[in-house]
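Example for tutorial group B:
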């Protein structure tokens, strides 16, 4: 069955509505968390912050997100993702709105605000991973997950130029946060009315779609668990088998792969605009557009890679593990090589932009590895395992983003050291995932 079957004329599948809402949630949340990477260029000039101070501000978000990812995934698996995601979105929109006020009090208040923002956003991906396992059959999960992950960069690709425009406008850098906070509150209201945790909860869902979702689950769950799921119980997960989860190397493949990947991933998210501004001397009003181009390429190729993975697995009958390993290697090697080339070979801003944009296109293939793997090996606990991986990944994310400012400070803005370390982490992540990953259900 296609993601949007042609024979459902005039009917919009409810899982499509659900995934579209999830996509917008990720777009808005990442716009809210990363718009500061543009705003901080203006803020640092106004308050005379050095790189170390900027690093602390940018990295403080991850302290908050560290605290809610596991519990967010566990609560979503147990009670459904609708309520948990709704509370998270309200929290992150509120603290986005308050950011300018806290920034003008002192830097400590701003850091506290960023931590609270992280607490709200920490539940986002674990909730969505849990929702995808409830709403999408295995044949569609790579595409659904890719659509959600690339929406990170859709949000940032839209946010970066808008942030540059607002920051240089008469309204000042404060307006960056006000505009995106309003958008966050609007999404929360829409989610309240149209977001549902389970297919059976959605009024108006067709019998064909519901049967398709539940019937496809039979290839994933045991008979007893499937019958319990079909009964519509909200307490699908009764007791979390922590010991069983931690005993499988396939789980550690996801945790380690995601952790090493996130060192470079979040440095790119937070420091790439500053890299363009300082290394290639791009005009301050153009850095948002430079950054957005790489993000748009990531989005396009990320969607393509999701379809390629589903086609390879379900049509060409290539082993799931082979596909997951292959796309992980393409993504990790692609971004690593491009960062090194941009630093050591690029002489102009155009050359740097071209190399990094190509690198992001290849990097997008990595989406369909660690992000989808929890659904491959433990669909019942996908939200929990995703939350566990993202929680562990916030540790290198925090230290990576914070240490970048310190390294630039003591090395006189030597970006080659930053990107070399990132490349090394990408390679380690690729090795761990390749050696430990699995492609079959191991926890039911």
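The residue assignment follows.
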């Amino acid at each position: 069955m296609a993601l949007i079957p042609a024979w459902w004329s005039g009917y919009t599948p409810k899982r499509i509505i659900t995934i579209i809402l999830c996509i917008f949630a990720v777009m808005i949340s990442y716009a809210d968390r990363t718009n500061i990477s543009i705003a901080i260029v203006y803020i640092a000039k106004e308050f005379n912050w050095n790189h170390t101070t900027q690093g602390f501000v940018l990295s403080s978000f991850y302290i908050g997100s560290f605290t809610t990812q596991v519990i967010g995934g566990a609560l979503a698996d147990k009670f459904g993702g609708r309520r948990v995601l709704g509370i998270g979105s309200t929290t992150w929109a509120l603290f986005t709105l308050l950011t300018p006020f806290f920034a003008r009090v002192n830097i400590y208040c701003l850091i506290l605000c960023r931590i609270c923002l992280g607490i709200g956003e920490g539940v986002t991906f674990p909730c969505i991973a849990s929702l995808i396992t409830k709403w999408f059959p295995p044949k569609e999960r790579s595409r659904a997950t890719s659509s959600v992950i690339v929406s990170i960069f859709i949000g940032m690709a839209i946010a970066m130029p808008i942030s540059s425009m607002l920051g240089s406008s008469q309204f000042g850098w404060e307006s960056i946060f006000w505009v995106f906070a309003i958008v966050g509150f609007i999404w929360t209201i829409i989610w309240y009315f149209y977001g549902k945790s389970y297919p059976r909860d959605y009024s108006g869902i067709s019998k064909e779609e519901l049967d398709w979702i539940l019937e496809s689950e039979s290839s994933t769950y045991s008979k007893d668990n499937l019958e319990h799921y079909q009964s519509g119980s909200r307490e699908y997960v009764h007791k979390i088998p922590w010991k069983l989860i931690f005993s499988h190397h396939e789980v550690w493949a996801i945790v380690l792969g995601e952790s090493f990947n996130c060192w470079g991933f979040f440095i790119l998210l937070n420091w790439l605009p500053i890299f363009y501004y300082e290394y290639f001397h791009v005009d301050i009003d153009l850095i948002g557009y430079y950054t957005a181009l790489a993000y748009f390429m990531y989005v396009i190729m990320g969607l393509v890679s999701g379809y390629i993975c589903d086609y390879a697995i379900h049509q060409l009958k290539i082993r799931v593990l082979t596909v997951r390993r292959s796309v992980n290697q393409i993504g990790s090697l692609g971004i690593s090589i491009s960062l090194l080339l941009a630093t050591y070979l690029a002489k102009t801003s155009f050359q740097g932009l071209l190399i990094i944009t190509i690198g992001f296109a290849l990097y997008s293939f990595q989406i369909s590895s660690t992000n989808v793997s929890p659904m491959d090996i433990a669909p019942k606990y996908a939200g929990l395992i995703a939350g566990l991986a993202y929680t562990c990944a916030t540790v290198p994310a925090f230290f990576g983003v914070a240490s970048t400012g310190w390294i630039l400070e003591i090395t006189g803005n030597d970006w080659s050291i930053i990107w070399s370390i990132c490349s090394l982490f990408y390679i380690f992540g690729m090795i761990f995932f390749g050696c430990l990953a699995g492609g079959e259900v191991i926890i039911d």
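The CA atoms of residues 90 and 263 lie 28 Å apart. Compare this with the pattern of hydrophobic and polar residues in the output above.
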